[in-house]
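Morning - iron/sulfur cluster inputs below, output right after.
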Amino acid sequence: MKTKFSSCCLNGIAEGCRHCVKGRKLVLFISGKCSRKCWYCSLSEKRKDKDIIWANEREITNTDELINEVQESHADSAGITGGDPLLFIERTLKFAKTLKSKFGKEFHIHIYLPTKLVNSNNLRKLSKYIDEVRFHPEFILNREKIKEDVEKIRLANQFWKINNIGIELPMIPNKKSEILNFIKIVREEVGFINLNEFEISETNFQAVLKKYKLNRDTYTIKDSDKSGIWLLNQLKKQKVKNKVHFCTANLKNNYQYKNRLKLHKILPFGRKTSEGTVTYLAVYPKNLRKAVREIRSIGKCFPDTKNKRIILSEKTAEKIIKERLYKIARVEEHPTYDSTVMDFCIIN
Ligand code: SF4
């Protein structure tokens, strides 16, 4: 039942998850606006309720920027999420169509859909470009919604094969029996069930901490993992045929994200570390143009205008140190568009 990437499964994992664990999935966040207001929603401050599009860590406004991010991250698939992509169905279709036209029909696309706005018309339009659909049911907020959720999920069978239809929801510890009951009702309509370890975020911590305790890592919720394993065991006893995956925070941080970093394109003269980060030797001059001219006269360098710095080859760095031309920083950062800095020190 244990997978190689710190999660647990029964009968295998969905196709979209296969791309994800290898770090080959681009996350296309279509908008922070949502049709629902889940108390457990973990969207960050900079995304929640904001109508902004993100391709991984890159804020984008058009399809060219999306294509750049796919190429730089070496993605072979995408997961479209939000917010509620159905609130922006034309935008969702436009971006999904671009991915298929540019990268071919093998470029796998899955989508997360809160069930509220799901109807036959929306699903038919999406099915032209989307390979796999993952419903986020509403019953967890409102028990009366069970029948409605199941009817909406059933509609997907007109457009996708059952293996490409699933449900995905957070593993909230004291909801495990309700989740199990819902799975029993919906299991004939779906090929897979994904349960995510419940995590705290900057926007949900007040609501979550009123009801739940944290694990020692201070971001996962106590007993979410135990409940996930309990659910898997219950479903195993019932000999369900569905693929069931309990996706842990550890999988997200140590496999999905790290593997994505390792594949990411880096700038010239960078060195990749085994953790997927990259180190550069760089100068951060006041006058970038003038410094580029000076440094180019003594050796190789790369002007990184986005980050207002000049990245140096090791030989060039040695010459600059010897001639005391500039202060040089050794920077360790993520190779992602936002270049998250992990370590920064001046070496001369
Ligand atoms: S459906 Fe998803 S994005 Fe929307 S509020 Fe709920 S958890 Fe947040």
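Note: Residues 271-346 form one domain.

O.
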